[in-house]
Amino acid sequence: MQTELAGKVALVTGGSRGIGKAIALALAEAGADVALNYQNNDRMAEEVCGEIRNRGRRALAVKGDVAVAAEVTRMVEEVRQGLGPIGILVNNAGIGHIASIDTISEQEWDATLAVNLKGAFLVTQAVLPDLRRARWGRIINISSVAAQMGGVVGPHYAASKAGIIGLTHYYAAYLAKEGITVNAIAPGPIATDMSAALPQLKPESLPVGRFGTPEEIAAVALLLAGNGFLTGQTVNVNGGRYLG
Questions:
Q1: 242: in domain
Q2: pLDDT tens digits for range 135-170
Q3: Annotated catalytic sites, by residue?
Q4: Residue 47's CATH number
Q5: Which domain holds residue 222?
Q6: Measured between alpha carbons, how far is 71 from 92 in angstroms, rounded to an integer?
Q7: Sequence-ordered alpha helix ranges (H) in 66-204
Q8: Is residue 126 part of a domain?
Q9: Is 239 helix (H, G, I), strand (E, B) or coil?
Q10: In this prediction, what percent of the chain has a pLDDT beyond 90?
Q11: 10 Å Cβ neighbour count for 57?
């Protein structure tokens, strides 16, 4: 896999912490240069870049809101100028504010769909020219077990993550002949800031008896990045929470 990914340029959205950070570091270990998109925390993004450089790879932190087309265009161009054409895209950026059926507002719905689903669409569209020119590419979309069984965050989150699976299927079907694979990962509860904000999630409720780790999701992302025959799939990494 190091041979396959060596020298490739990866863009990981939401890459300054949690699952995104773990994937960025795993890709760097496999030989890729990595650009991290983030929205707020400059210090955390630069710390991750430092860890990537310590692994002997180039790194770049690019600030921007994935839900805003103009910012996505600027962000992707910064990556091209700083590291070169993008070959691997990980659409990981997402938000998940808790709201029930009775409390969800139109604003919360729109904001969640904008970041979680529209953001993946915008960044993919911006990166596609690089992948098509190379006739090689890997797109990895981060969905959620909530897409399959509703979850506990709210209808807005479940719908956005289900949309990611549909988007994955569409791109996979139309891009396979161009050497571009597109897959999704649907994590269950992972030990991140989001899970910590959901007290109703209990490790003992999972068949494996614990939350997953960001590194366990990163291992699957690395598998998808290195496999040119695997496309259009949703890989469930959920500790047995959903047996699909």
A1: no
A2: 999 999 999 999 999 988 999 999 999 999 999 999
A3: 157
A4: 3.40.50.720
A5: 2-237
A6: 16
A7: 69-82, 106-113, 119-134, 146-149, 155-175, 193-196
A8: yes
A9: coil
A10: 89
A11: 23
